[in-house]
């Protein structure tokens, strides 16, 4: 049996990433897939890019990874852009949109947000039709099996881990390593089965929650004099999205 760790949305949070990578290593998992959003929000985008590039066998482009490499009029975005080298920007621009593979007879597709865009947000409480649409093919997805739709879809983006079964298919979100908005612990998923096998075998999806040093993450942001610091502290300590702070 093979085990693949699927991580996402690190957002420049080194203490959280290091805690998750330690957990992955302790479990003896050899392959890691990252579903994007390496950068932004936290203070250490540059270090995260280097670590992910070295640690992960596959890395998908997230929305932050996309727009961070383009000019911006927003001061906060400019601050995060200044942390990255030209070489790191080139790496982010080169990231693919999705990845597909077979595991224990299941055709699996992973992307950052939806099969249509890295910017399309789909929550677990959205309409049934919207959630089912995540199994559609598009001109963005690899479509290694032609018109066949995936049996299992996994994604990131919403920082909210969940699993649902829809029309005999399985949809899951890996949550966020560095900016979780459901629990104040880093989140990732382990896929276990026979990698690249089209034959039906035992298969599982396991969710892992990893505590990390939130105080250290906040201290790193303070030392860097990172913009929107209070919003960042709120999200790390309460798992409450900054856009909801006045509700």
UniProtKB/TrEMBL annotation:
Cellular compartments per GO CC: cytoplasm
Classification via Gene3D superfamilies: 3.60.21.10
Taxonomic source organism: Halalkalibacter suaedae
One Pfam assignment: Metallophos_2
Taxonomic lineage: Bacteria, Bacillati, Bacillota, Bacilli, Bacillales
GO molecular function: phosphatase activity
Identification of the protein by name: Metallophosphoesterase family protein
Domain Calcineurin-like phosphoesterase intervals: 3-192
Signal peptide: none
């Amino acid at each position: 049996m093979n085990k693949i760790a699927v991580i996402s949305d690190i957002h420049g949070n080194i203490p959280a990433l290091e805690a998750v990578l330690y957990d992955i290593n302790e479990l003896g998992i050899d392959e890691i897939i990252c579903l994007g959003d390496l950068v932004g929000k936290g203070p250490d985008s540059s270090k995260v890019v280097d670590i992910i590039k070295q640690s992960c066998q596959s890395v998908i482009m997230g929305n932050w990874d996309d727009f961070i490499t383009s000019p911006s009029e927003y001061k906060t975005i400019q601050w995060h852009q200044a942390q990255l080298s030209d070489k790191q920007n080139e790496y982010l621009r080169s990231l693919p949109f999705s990845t597909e593979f077979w595991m224990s007879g299941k055709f699996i597709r992973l992307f950052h947000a939806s099969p249509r865009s890295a910017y399309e947000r789909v929550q677990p409480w959205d309409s049934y039709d919207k959630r089912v649409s995540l199994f559609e093919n598009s001109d963005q997805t690899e479509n290694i099996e032609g018109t066949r739709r995936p049996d299992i879809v996994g994604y990131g983006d919403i920082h909210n881990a969940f699993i649902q079964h829809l029309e005999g298919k399985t949809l899951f979100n890996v949550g966020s390593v560095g900016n979780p908005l459901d629990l104040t612990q880093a989140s990732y998923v382990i896929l276990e089965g026979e990698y690249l096998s089209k034959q039906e075998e035992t298969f599982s999806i396991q969710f892992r929650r990893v505590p990390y040093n939130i105080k250290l993450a906040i201290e790193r942001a303070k030392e860097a004099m990172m913009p929107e610091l209070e919003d960042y502290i709120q999200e790390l300590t309460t798992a409450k999205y900054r856009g909801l702070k006045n509700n």
